[in-house]
Amino acid sequence: MNNAKLSEEIQRLKAACGYSMEGLKAISTHPAFRMELIATAILLPLALLLAHSGVERALLVGSLFLVLIVELLNTGVEKAIDRISTDIHPLSKLAKDVGSAAVLLSLVNAAVIWFFILF
């Protein structure tokens, strides 16, 4: 890869990181994400202390991050739907309900993983 191409790729990477930080900053004001972030901040050190192996640590920590990732995607879907129209429409409701269900399943997944590893 030549220097010009490498420089261009580095600039793209910097821009992508900037967009990601803007997204995290924007979602930090949403109550559901904040609650999940606080839970992650509390549970993350516990995951590192209570797990007996690297695999257990990976599962415990990964389940926490999965909840945050799904919440980010759910919020993105909700905001896109609201941008299109705030009118009540069955398809808009379905999209929001499915996103909410995905968050619920990620929380259940985390709870099951934590239960099986710790108990």
Core attributes:
119 residues, mainly alpha, 0% strand, 88% helix, 4 helices
Could you give a quick summary of the protein structure above?
This protein is mainly alpha-helical.
In words, what does this structure look like?
The chain is mainly α and about 120 residues long. The chain is built from four helices and no strands. Helix 2 (about 30-50) packs antiparallel against helix 3 (about 55-85) and helix 3 runs antiparallel to helix 4. The model has no long low-confidence stretch (mean pLDDT about 95). The protein is about 90% helix and about 0% strand. The chain has helices spanning about 5-25, 30-50, 55-85, 90-119.
Write the layout of secondary structure elements.
Elements: H1 3-27, H2 31-50, H3 54-84, H4 90-118
Helix pairs in contact: 2-3, 3-4
Helix content: over 70%
Q: What structural class should be given to the helix and strand makeup?
A: mainly alpha
Report the order of strands and helices: HHHH
Task: Report the total helices.
Answer: 4
Structural Rg: 18 Å
Estimate the global geometry from the Cα principal axes: flat
* C-alpha termini separation: 51 Å
Percentage beta strand: under 5%
The average pLDDT score comes to: 95
Oligomer: single chain
**Could you name the ranges where pLDDT drops below 50 across 5 or more consecutive residues?**
none
Largest sheet: none
Write down how many β-strands occur, each being a DSSP E stretch of 2 or more residues. Answer: 0
